[in-house]
Amino acid sequence: MRERIRSGQIPVGRRIPSQAELEAETGGTVSRRTIKSATELLIKERLVEGVQGKGTFVVALPE
How many CA atoms lie within 13 A of 26 on its CB side? Predict the structure, then answer.
């Protein structure tokens, strides 16, 4: 996900895919728990921010 943000595939201001969407993208090979942990890490790094009822949005580019 970080690489998708860095490359501009998911630009600042855009919503990242939901956990269910990401799980479907991987064909179920990555668990939702792993996806949730990765999203939580991106939030701690202040790259994304959750907006209740709307999703998680990119707010900064990784260094």
Answer: 14
